[in-house]
Amino acid sequence: MSQTGIVIEAARAKINLALHVTGQRADGYHLLDSLVTFADFGDELALRPSAQDRFEITGRFAETLSADADNLVTRARDGLRALAEELGYETCPVDITLTKSLPLSSGIGGGSADAAATLRGLMRLWKLDVPRDRLAELCLSLGADVPMCLASSPLIARGIGEDIEPLATLPSFFILLVNPLKPVSTPQIFRLLTSKTNGPVHPFDPAQADWLDYLGCLRNDLQEPAQRLLADIGECLQQLEESGAEVCRMSGSGATCFGLYRDEMTLERAALTLEQAKPQWYVRAGRTLEGNAP
Ligand SMILES: C[C@](O)(CO)[C@H](O)COP(=O)(O)OP(=O)(O)OC[C@H]1O[C@@H](n2ccc(N)nc2=O)[C@H](O)[C@@H]1O
Ligand SMILES: Nc1ncnc2c1ncn2[C@@H]1O[C@H](COP(=O)(O)OP(=O)(O)OP(=O)(O)O)[C@@H](O)[C@H]1O
């Protein structure tokens, strides 16, 4: 916490480098095997003690979202406050500002990252020590991606996203995200799946391949149904391929697609070309986090 009492938390974009759908639970939720990393950019949360609770949204995509009780930030705040009070803590009112830089309903977990960053920030601000199982339960009640966004470092997620194994060996990649700025509904994409029992992600063997070659052999099983619903996804993938990306894939339930590049110069050229060719798209270049990042 700074001297002025402000807590700043990054809400990094989540990237499903691979997403295999391996089954379905009795309640309809799908079982996944997903290799996940995080970008070095995303939304940002600023939290500070205040006379009363306040919440406002600024940033490029602020207009697309309302700061009401349904927002994942307010739901995370209220859920954590109820849990903290149950555990005997006192919680002061908070003033929260969300800088919304990630597009909505785009497969990069913006809302989940915001919820997770709110939880991390408030645990610092309110000096909470919450039992792991109670925190995990709260995260999952906010969304299947919230547990992984709480970790916000490379991992393998199984179950519906709650079974998390850190992936310390994952390197950092040069990444370009492109999104046609057409929102995609996650439940709708899951409903359009034709096969729900696909093979899991096979482990990385450094003797057999490098990371980009390995990732190239994996899949996102939601990509085909998403492409059927929104043809722009095919165009995003084609543009990435033509720009020199080694691996091109959709993240989550789409529509954001990513390209991974061998070097920074090819990435920068690709970003420039796509920004000029598609000014109406979201185009963002950066790095992904390393597995052993702090
Ligand atoms: C596709 C992923 O982004 C991959 O990381 C996530 O699994 C989706 O996570 P999320 O957006 O946090 O999803 P939630 O808000 O919990 O769920 C939205 C809806 O997606 C469907 N859903 C979600 C996750 C999952 N493993 N199986 C599902 O079938 C359910 O219909 C659910 O009602
Ligand atoms: N702070 C928030 N940011 C983004 N979306 C929010 C937020 N709060 C609530 N929502 C709602 O959550 C829904 C999904 O938003 P989000 O941007 O996280 O989707 P996504 O990127 O597709 O996520 P995922 O990768 O988890 O499928 C939207 O319908 C949006 O209205």
From TrEMBL:
Sequence ranges assigned to domain GHMP kinase C-terminal in this UniProt record: 220-275
Annotated EC: 2.7.1.148
Pfam families tied to this protein: GHMP_kinases_C, GHMP_kinases_N
Gene Ontology molecular function, alphabetical: 4-(cytidine 5'-diphospho)-2-C-methyl-D-erythritol kinase activity
Protein's UniProt keywords contain Transferase: yes
Residue ranges occupied by any GHMP kinase N-terminal domain in the UniProt entry: 79-151
Keyword RNA-binding set for record: no
Pathway stated in the Swiss-Prot or TrEMBL entry: Isoprenoid biosynthesis; isopentenyl diphosphate biosynthesis via DXP pathway; isopentenyl diphosphate from 1-deoxy-D-xylulose 5-phosphate: step 3/6
Enzyme class: transferase
Record field: transmembrane: none
Membership in a protein family: Belongs to the GHMP kinase family. IspE subfamily.
Protein name: 4-diphosphocytidyl-2-C-methyl-D-erythritol kinase
Lineage, opening ranks: Bacteria, Pseudomonadati, Pseudomonadota, Alphaproteobacteria, Hyphomicrobiales
